[in-house]
Specification:
Shape: elongated
Structural class: alpha/beta
Bound molecules: 2'-O-acetyl adenosine-5-diphosphoribose
Distance between the termini: 30 Å
Number of helices: 11
Strand content: 15-25%
Radius of gyration: 19 Å
Helix content: 25-40%
C-alpha cells in the first residue's frame, strides 16, 4: 500500500526510518532531482534541460556523428555549470550513511559526480555506481580507450579533443539514448537492488530504463521502497512509503541520528 504524504509527515518519516533501521542492505537510487538543490538542472519538469535542448541532437550517437562540435559545446557548458555547484545536504547525508554503515550501495543516474565528491569528503567506504557515466570522463570513438578527464575546446572541429593512442575523436564518457549501459556497472546495481531490504529512491522521474526498473528488483525480492520526490512518478504506486518533499528537506531528516534535532 502507498502512503502519500503532503510534505514531511512525521508518521511517514517514522515509518521510513524504521524500515531503514531494520534493513541489513540498502540500495539508494538517485536521479537528477537530488542535485536540483545544488543548482544542477533536471531533465524534465519546469526548467528541465529537455525543455530547451533536443536530446536527439545532443545525447545520441547519431547526434555526435552529425555535429560533434555542437555536442561537445553542450557538454563543456554542463561541465562548467557543475564545477560551480557543490554537493548538498542530501548528498552529504547519504555519503555519511555509506561511511557509517556496511551494506549500503548508492546507484545514481547522474553524471555530475556530486555523490562521488561527497563520498570522498566523507571518507565513505564505497563509491557510488554511476549508471550513466560521468561528465568529466571521455572515450575514443575509434579504439574505445578510456581517456579520462581532458580539457575540451569546442571552438571548432579542429580543436576537439583527440585520443593519444590512435588520434580518434574523443566523446563524452556518458551513456546516450539508444546505448547500452556498462554491463559491469548495471550488473552490480541490479544485484545491489535485488539483495536490498530497502530501496531509497530519490529525485528520479522513473521514466528512463533500465534505471527505472531497479527498485522493482528490490520489490520482487520482498524489500520495501521509499520514494522521495515532490511529485508523483510511475514508481509511486509501488512505493511502501512516499515522502512528498525535496531531497534536501527529506534525506537529512530521514538519516539523522536524532530526527527531532
Ligand atoms: P528527471 O529530470 O527526469 O526527473 C527529475 C525528478 O526529480 C522529477 O521526478 C522531479 O519531480 C524530481 N525533483 C525535482 N526537484 C527535486 C528535489 N529538490 N528533490 C527531490 N526530487 C526532485 O531526471 P532523471 O529521472 O534523473 O539520461 O532522468 C533520468 C535520465 O533521463 C537522466 O539520467 C538522463 C535523462 O535523459 C541520459 O541522459 C541518458
Amino acid at each position: 500500500m502507498t502512503d502519500v504524504v503532503p510534505d514531511l509527515d512525521p508518521g511517514a518519516i517514522a515509518q521510513a526510518r524504521a524500515l531503514l533501521a531494520d534493513a541489513r542492505r540498502i540500495v539508494v537510487l538517485t536521479g537528477a532531482g537530488i542535485s536540483a538543490e545544488s543548482g544542477v538542472p533536471t531533465f524534465r519538469g519546469a526548467g528541465g534541460l529537455w525543455k530547451t535542448f533536443r536530446a536527439e541532437d545532443l545525447a545520441t550517437p547519431q547526434g555526435f556523428a552529425r555535429d560533434p562540435r555542437l555536442v561537445w559545446e553542450w557538454y563543456a557548458w554542463r561541465r562548467t555549470l557543475v564545477l560551480q555547484c557543490a554537493p548538498n545536504l542530501a548528498h552529504h547525508a547519504l555519503a555519511r550513511l555509506t561511511r557509517d554503515r556496511a551494506g549500503v550501495t548508492i546507484v545514481t543516474q547522474n553524471v555530475d559526480g556530486l555523490h562521488a565528491r561527497a563520498a570522498r569528503e566523507a571518507g565513505a567506504r564505497t563509491m557510488p555506481l554511476e549508471l550513466h557515466g560521468n561528465l568529466f570522463a571521455t572515450r575514443c570513438i575509434d579504439c574505445a580507450r578510456d581517456a579520462g578527464d581532458v580539457q575540451v575546446d569546442s571552438a571548432s572541429f579542429a580543436t576537439l579533443p583527440r585520443c593519444r593512442a590512435c588520434g580518434g575523436l574523443l566523446r563524452p564518457g556518458v551513456v546516450w539514448f539508444g546505448e547500452s549501459l556498462d554491463p559491469g556497472v548495471l550488473g552490480r546495481a541490479t544485484e545491489a537492488a535485488a539483495l536490498a531490504d530497502v530501496a531509497l529512491v530519490v529525485g528520479s522521474s522513473a521514466l528512463v530504463h533500465p534505471a527505472a526498473g531497479l527498485a522493482g528488483h528490490t520489490r520482487a525480492g520482498g524489500g520495501a521502497v521509499i520514494e522521495v520526490n515532490p511529485d508523483a512518478t510511475p514508481l509511486t504506486g509501488q512505493a511502501t512509503v512516499t515522502l512528498r518533499a525535496t531531497a534536501g528537506a527529506a534525506i537529512p531528516r530521514l538519516l539523522a541520528a536524532d530526527p527531532s534535532a
